[in-house]
Specification:
This protein is of the alpha/beta class. The chain contains 18 helices and 14 strands. The structure holds uracil.
Length: 481
Amino acid sequence: MRRVVLEGRGNFEEWRKAARAFAAAGILPHEIDWHEKSNEPGFAFQRDALPPDPPANSKPMTVPPAFMTLAEAVICHSDPKRFSLLYSLLWRIQENRHLLDLSSDEEVSRARLMQKSVYRDAHKMTAFVRFKEVAAPAGGRRKFTAWFEPDHYVVARKASFFQRRFTDMDWLIATPKGSAAWNGERLTISNAPCEKPDISDATDDLWRTYYANIFNPARLKVKAMHAEMPKKYWKNLPEADLIPGLIADAEAKVLAMAERGATMPLPYHNRIQEAAARMPVPEMAPAGTLEALREDAAVCSQCPLHARATQTVFGEGPVDAKIMFVGEQPGDQEDLAGRPFVGPAGKVFDDAIAQAGIDRSRLYVTNAVKHFKYEPRGKRRIHQRPNLGEVQQCRWWLKLELDLIKPKVIVAMGATALYSLTGEKQKLEDLRGRPIAMEEGRMLFVTVHPSYLLRIPDEERKARELARFRQDMNLIKGLAA
Ligand code: URA
């Protein structure tokens, strides 16, 4: 039995190097006893040496990209068994390239649970880190420190998210599982555990005021709230001690709100909306992968739509898709499912592409706006068109999706998608049905939105329009070939 001791702490390269060496030497999973140094206090740091580098002409093990995505997340989990689990999967995947599709497989399902837990922990970090201002040298940039207690080694995974969001200040995020710091030029990541710093400042009161103001008693769902904001995070959240009082007062507040009745928006509301539409979208460094982008978008709160939607509905499809379809915004069913085009409009879309012989799993399907905008009416949520300001804010995500996918053909379905893709208000019919050259050799193809077809009352006209939409799908297929 070989004994290998890794530092761990989310260092994928360290595990990969060891796994490669053992695999090349033909050492089987049951012949290795993996340990994590950091989890074993007083543990003597002895290990068997790694096998020598394999000869240059030896054939290395290969893995599908899905394994890399899984392994890079699993390695951040705090369970010391993750090293052996990944090594076993690495061997088994050589026999069955589709192993990771077998959700009933015990090892695959354990790894998937670890991956999910790491994603969740990373997401919580983006939601619950609270920066506090600390003393800075006179005339220097303002400095902030935050303390966070993650379950897993997610600091390095999320550091670039904070770098993009908080570029204009110096900050340190300290955790018992390492730290990340940004000084305007360099992002420094350390694996060394930190002690909890003694910090609290005036922004605690701001957080409390903000939280008390955005808390909507009419939408209170205590169970969902506890699931979203588990109690273990409360001790580091300045606003947490307000929560029991806000919950206790919610019912009385809702009754008082109902009694007061509806009010008109304040006069400056429209001015703010118009100003938001004119605001340039901030230039920020793009996230490196689709996965990272999706994680970032999951916590987007750039416009007010996030507050009422269930979740961000990000685009989906392979990163090498040749065709990208862009709709308007998720509908009621998409908002609940977290996936684009799965409701009635999605059915029209699916049928039309299927008759054209287009495989949806090869497409990237997304929306101009990533949150569902609606008006509650009784128990129903009635779709509302996003305004220009909301589309402008969300163009940031669409641009990053385009930059990563680099599709050959981009299909704008409807006026909102067309506006988001071109930045201009144009008549759909003027552009419909022919390829329009865009930068970097891409083609834009304009067609109607599938929900337009659903709304046509006259059956004959509906059939005609549906046939035209299908014809558009045939043309799109030809363009991407
Ligand atoms: N309409 C859209 O524009 N997008 C969806 O995802 C669903 C309906």
